[in-house]
Amino acid sequence: MSVTRFAGDARSRGALGLGIALLSAAAFGTAGPFAGSLMATGWTPGAVVTVRIGIAALVLTLPALVSLRNHRGLPRRALAQVLAFGLVAIAGGQLTFFNAVQRLDVGVALLLEYSGILLVVAWLWLRHGQRPRRLTVAGGIAALAGLVLVLGPGGGGLDPIGVLWALLAGVSLAVYFTMASRGDGALPPLTLAWAGMLVGALALAACAATGLLPFHVGAATVTLLERRVSWVVPVAGLALIAAALAYAAGIAASRLLGARVASFAGLTEVLFAGLFAWVLLGQAPGAWQFAGGLVVLAGIALVRADERTPPPREGDDQPAAVAELVGPAG
Predict the structure, then answer these.
(1) I need a labelling partner for 141 at 20 to 30 A (CA). Which of 119, 127, 207, 302 fits?
(2) Helix, strand, or coil here: 19?
(3) Residue 272 buriedness (CB in 10 A; 0-12 / 13-18 / 19+)
(4) How many CB atoms lie within 10 A of CB 66?
């Protein structure tokens, strides 16, 4: 394969990966209005999360099994990945964040959670020797500064327990992106999303059954878009859009982009959440939030530009698509 063709393929796959990452972020961004309408009627966070990923896993069962037809069942080497992904990245991430928002403002909790992208950069540096270069450092600073402008978190009275929960959510976020980016072919993205959500749902259900997780559902109707609708509507939105589509697309994007770029692209979830709140709920963002959104996008562009400079050394954590183009070392 010629160098020109390789570069062109890498650019096209990178563009595709960014597009899928934005789709995933937009899908995740719909969770707020859906979940908020349920919790306003008495649904507990644990009930919302468990139902969300449980139904999503059920919906994805047939497509996930079909995608495994060439693998002849679940590979044994993928079992540990599925367990860790389901328990830490999905169930753990959901629970830690909801525990955080019970003690902190949502903006503060989101800011602390998305500091997990710095853990991704640190992991790639310590584990794979990918020392962050100037563009990545500048992009990280810009992205987090933009996030502060978008969220506008308050300054005082932070609950230390809430901060701890939010930081644990950041760890789960980092685990999600690093594990999702593994493109060794063990499991297709759709199957990994299904298996992880199945494990996560079973773990949450077990916690609810033993009383460790408060579980309560509210009224039969909820208010969504200023209309009274059945609880089935937001639950379907959470399961199909904010879980099944969001996780499957996120894993696919991570394998095309690599953990670092995918984690920074994931910041746009906050921007999409604000956009949906504006369009659907009439909560118009201010000038500072618009400015912050532009700064976040600039930070992502810097990190992406850094990834497109000379390819990583042998043994580095390459995006799956690039690894397939280069082929095995030697």
Answers:
(1) 127
(2) helix
(3) buried
(4) 11
What does the alpha-carbon distance between residue 293 and residue 146 come to, in Å, rounded to a whole number? Answer: 6
Contact indicator for 139, 300 with CB cutoff of 8 Å? yes
Angle at 64 between CA 61 and CA 66, to 5 degrees: 110
Give the helix ranges, DSSP H, for 181-319.
189-209, 232-236, 246-257, 259-265, 268-281, 287-307
The answer to whether the beta carbons of residues 248 and 60 sit under 8 Å apart is: yes
CA 281, CA 194: separation in Å to the nearest integer? 31
pTM: 0.76
DSSP string for 152-185: ----S---HHHHHHHHHHHHHHHHHHHHHT--SS
Contacts of 210 (CB under 8 A, 6+ apart): none
Per-residue pLDDT of the chain (330 residues; tens, 9 = 90+): 443 444 456 677 778 888 999 999 899 888 877 888 888 888 888 898 999 999 999 999 999 888 877 665 556 667 888 898 999 999 888 888 877 877 776 667 777 787 788 788 787 777 766 777 777 778 778 877 877 777 665 555 568 888 888 889 889 988 888 888 775 556 788 888 999 999 999 999 998 899 888 899 988 888 877 788 899 999 999 999 999 999 999 998 888 888 778 888 887 887 787 777 777 666 666 777 778 777 877 877 777 676 655 544 444 444 444 333 333 333
